[in-house]
Amino acid sequence: MIEFRSVSHAFDDVPVLEDVSLSIDAGEFVLLAGANGSGKTTLLRHSNGLLEPDSGEVLVDGTPVAEDLIAARSSVGMVFQHPRDQFVAATVGEDIAFGPENLGLDRAEIDRRVTAALETVNMAGREDERIDALSGGEQSRVAIAGALAMEPTHLVLDEPFTGLDAPARRSVLERLASLSADGTGVLLATHDLRDVCELADRVIAMHDGRVAVDGPPADALAELDGLEVRVPDTTRC
Ligand code: ADP
Known about the structure:
- The chain is an alpha/beta fold.
- The chain has a single domain (2-222), classed as Rossmann fold (3-Layer(aba) Sandwich).
- The chain contains 8 helices and 10 strands.
- Helix 3 packs parallel to helix 5 (136-148) and helix 4 (107-120) packs across helix 5.
- It binds adenosine-5'-diphosphate.
- Adenosine-5'-diphosphate binds next to helix 1.
- Residues 2-233 form the ABC transporter domain.
- Probably part of an ABC transporter complex. Responsible for energy coupling to the transport system.
- This is Biotin transport system ATP-binding protein.
- It is found in: Cell membrane.
């Protein structure tokens, strides 16, 4: 479980998160919605200690992140907004292996994890391909596979659909839903709520650094008026 307890954070004295309390359970698929600038990325960066709260605390599986940063980072996998920023190697296989290598695992275990992660994102057998030759959607999948290869108990993703067409977006969403069904807690920040009702367990909406809405998709969608969150006409619960 990732738990935020009254977390506040300011940049240059400007409050960006104010008294945020929420939790993401194992196996839950939670969408984090909100207009640009509402604080989603800042919130996600607190979930594995990339930022430290000014007040309040974040706990991962009961342990304060500040007490054990290494445990938090191995439990919470992060996928950032622009997958290109996250790649460290030229080929798919080398890139996904990088994290597990840093855990000091042996070669057989690293290879097993790379193979399994690529299977999970529907890219089995593509280890030797160059990342810069892949489509945007494939790069997003590689970024997700890189996080999965760390075998985190939670996966936190920040707008991972930039540059993906609708079928690729849908396919990644379905993968995330199936991972959460298998027990991974998934927190996905997006301003685009297509498919939420069908796939997510819960929607949290941020507004001006605060949690404005937190509930099942059907209830949450009814409360989004005025929060500048895009809800396509086709979205029904
Ligand atoms: P979102 O992900 O919802 O678009 P962010 O968390 O990125 O929101 O940003 C929330 C606010 O915090 C914005 O006003 C943004 O300009 C500001 N902000 C984010 N990161 C920094 C930073 N490193 N330094 C100063 N201000 C920042």
